[in-house]
Structure formats: structure tokens, C-alpha cells
Amino acid sequence: MKRVHFTHKYLLSPTHPITVNLIGCGGTGSMVLSCLGRIDCSLRALGHPGLHVTAFDPDEVSEANIGRQLFSVSDEGLNKADVLITRMNRFFASDWEAVPERFSGLYSYANITISCVDNIKSRIEIGEILRSDVNQYDDRDKLYWLDFGNSTDRGQVVLGTVQEMKQPKSEKYETVSRLRCVDEMFDLSQLNDEDSGPSCSLAEALGKQDLFINSTLAQHGSHLLWKLFTDAYIECQGLYLNLSSMNVNPIKL
């Protein structure tokens, strides 16, 4: 029997725009934010209230970011979250928010948390924050955690549930009420970060990460999020991507 997870009912018929926290506005985060703008626009066209996104990043745009990330020369020296959210609000006439600092428990209440961070410590901290307490207000209820991670030319996307979710009875499917988050799927405490430090130029940055690993991963992960809204269920909770071999392997439930 096929295993599926049915989307939490609030995401399908919310009373407010779905609240989304995007943590990290760099290589992957800048690409994901653009995808979220398209998802929001499309959901509204379908009669859904759409998304309200808050983006977090304490870093400023550097010369090495221009070209590989969605920044231009005129953005250099400005905060990444501020730049991207201002651009999105102008382009889509939205009222999304930027927080030019590290994500913390003060801002943890969102229906969907998306992490695009480049170190393991941040993922561990995010997991602890998301599980620290529960808020019963619909637009502040912590439901899903979508994590993006990559190396030079490989990456993964993992969608987990912050809490167990009641599933409808089904004779056709085996329903899954709890999806493991990235910190439950992998023992992050046993992994070591390879801290290579900031790059001084685009050429140096491209030596560490393929030009299209971030955007390819962002497209696949955003498609999973889109299916969560439009299909009302998912059969996979993520994927593994190998850009060198052009292989994409789903993470089945």
C-alpha cells in the first residue's frame, strides 16, 4: 500500500496567509525566495490567501555573491534580507518582512520554516527552537520544516513535520502523520562542518560550489512545497540531488 502524508488542513483553507520563515538569503535562500513569490502569486490566483514570508539573514552582500546569488553590483554592502525582500515587495506588490539578523526563538512562530543555512550548528539550533514551545493560534502554529543543504555539486531537501498531524482515514493509502525532520533523519551531532570561510571573489566561490547547484535544489524543493498545497498530499518528503550525474532520488515516506 502506498504511503502518503496528507497536508495539514490549515494550509489548504487558512483564515490568514500562511506564515513562512525563510532562514538564510544566500545562494539557495535567494533562489527559494523567488520561488516563494511565484507560489504566493499562484495560490492567490487560485483563491487561496497566499503566503506571508519573513526572511532572516545578518550578512551583507559581497562581491563574491554577485552572479552566483541573486544580487547585483548596486546591492554590495547592503543586508541580504533587506535587499531581497524589498525587491520581492516591489515586484509582486507584497508586504513581506525582512529581519537583518540571525534567526532566534523570538521569531519562531510560523506555519512553515525554511532553512537555507550553510552549517550544521544552525540546523541543530533551528530544530531546538522549533520544538521549544507550541502556539495554538492558526497563523503562528509551527507545522512544517523544509531544509535545504548542499556541497559543491550535491545536495538534499528534507521536509519534516514539527508536530504529529492527524491524518484522514484511507482505504487506498497508508497515511503518515509524522515526517522526520533533517535533524532526526541524520545525526547532525556526528557530522563536521567544513568551514572554508567567506570567498573573496566569484571565481573563488565557484570553486567551492557549482553555479547551478543552489538554483536546481531550490526548484526541486519549492516544487515539493507547491505539491503540498495543490495536491493536498505528498508521497515523498524530499530528495537527494547529484548535479554531476544529473541524478535526483526521492526520499520516500
Question: What do these coordinates show?
Answer:
- This protein has 253 residues and is of the alpha/beta class.
- The chain has one domain: Rossmann fold (3-Layer(aba) Sandwich), CATH 3.40.50.720.
- Helix content is 30%, strand content 22%.
- It has seven helices and eleven strands.
- It has helices at 9-12, 27-45, 80-92, 120-130, 182-185, 202-208, 213-230, and strands at 3-6, 18-23, 51-56, 97-99, 112-115, 144-150, 154-161, 174-175, 233-234, 236-242, 247-252.
- Strands 4-3-2-5-6-7-10-11 form an eight-stranded mixed β-sheet, with helices on one face. A three-stranded mixed β-sheet has the order 8-1-9.
- A hairpin with a 3-residue loop joins β6 and β7.
- α2 (27-45) packs parallel to α3 (80-92).
- The termini are close together.
Can you give me a brief rundown of this structure?
The chain has 253 residues and is α/β, with parallel strands linked by helices. It is built from seven helices and eleven strands.
SSE diagram, text form:
Layout: E1 3-6, H1 9-12, E2 18-23, H2 27-45, E3 51-56, H3 80-92, E4 97-99, E5 112-115, H4 120-130, E6 144-150, E7 154-161, E8 174-175, H5 182-185, H6 202-208, H7 213-230, E9 233-234, E10 236-242, E11 247-252
Helix pairs in contact: 2-3, 2-7
